[in-house]
Design a protein that fits this description.
Elements (H helix, E strand, L loop, with lengths): L1 H17 L14 E2 L9 E9 L3 E2 L2 E2 L2 H18 L4 E4 L7 E8 L2
Parallel strand pairs: 1-5
Antiparallel strand pairs: 2-6, 3-4, 5-6
């Protein structure tokens, strides 16, 4: 009885953690917007980046929505460190990563 209670408790905790986003927007990343390509036509491209996260936590697949939010957050933080104020997704989510272009917009 005790073993099953511990197992269920651990399983529920892992399931809850699998839905969490682990990455927070940095202070600099807060000033970076996620745009579509048509909104960045008047911007200067600074470079590209690949945002990488984890698709699974403790063997449990994370929701695509949470993964997408986390990848955008990573892109915003990295984009800020590259001197950008906007990022544009170049690809969809592939596994647990996504490619972005970094821009400086007026």
């Amino acid at each position: 009885m005790r073993f099953s209670t511990i197992f269920v408790t651990i399983f529920v905790m892992l399931l809850a953690l699998s839905g969490c986003t682990w990455v927070k927007v940095s202070e600099q990343g807060q000033s970076v917007e996620v745009l579509d390509a048509s909104a960045a036509v008047d911007c200067q491209m600074l470079g590209r980046l690949t945002a990488i996260s984890r698709a699974k936590v403790a063997g449990i697949t994370r929701s695509q929505e949470k993964l997408a939010i986390e990848l955008e957050t990573i892109a915003r933080n990295e984009g800020a460190s590259m001197g950008g104020n906007a990022v544009v997704p170049l690809t969809g989510i592939e596994g647990s990563q996504q490619k972005f272009q970094v821009y400086q917009c007026p």
